[in-house]
């Protein structure tokens, strides 16, 4: 998953606006809050990218070659992805 800075900026503003309007939250320093959201998104993106690399390597080292895009490959990817996130507590 690759998110541009513009997309991350947009998502952080959407989250802030949603929390303000629907969550009834008030933020004394919105800029600090937005920076925190952006940092969290970048950190999550790094975790996902690292997991993707590990998963692709793991699937690639299986005895039987499984073509990427096949149903079996997708199922294995999803299973390994959930395991990687669970290791990180996510």
Provide an overview of this structure.
The protein has 90 residues and is mainly α. It has one domain (5-87). It has 3 helices and no strands. The chain is elongated and about 55 Å long. The two termini are 16 Å apart. The mean pLDDT is 92.
SSE arrangement:
Elements: H1 5-21, H2 30-60, H3 71-87
Helix pairs in contact: 1-2, 2-3
Kindly report the average pLDDT value.
92
| Rg computed from alpha carbons, rounded to a whole number of angstroms | 18 Å
Number of helices: 3
Instruction: Please report the distance between the alpha carbons of the first and last residues.
Output: 16 Å
The helix-and-strand class reads mainly alpha
Protein traits:
elongated; 3 helices; 0% strand; 90 residues; mainly alpha; 72% helix
What would a concise description of this structure say?
Helices cover 72% and strands 0% of the residues.
């Amino acid at each position: 998953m690759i998110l541009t800075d513009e997309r991350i900026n947009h998502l952080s503003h959407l989250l802030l606006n949603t929390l303000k309007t629907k969550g009834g939250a008030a933020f004394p320093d919105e800029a600090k809050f937005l920076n925190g959201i952006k940092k969290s998104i970048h950190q999550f993106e790094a975790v996902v990218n690292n997991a993707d690399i590990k998963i692709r390597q793991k699937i690639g080292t299986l005895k039987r070659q499984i073509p990427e895009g096949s149903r079996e490959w997708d199922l294995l990817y999803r299973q390994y992805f959930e395991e990687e996130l669970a290791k990180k507590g996510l």
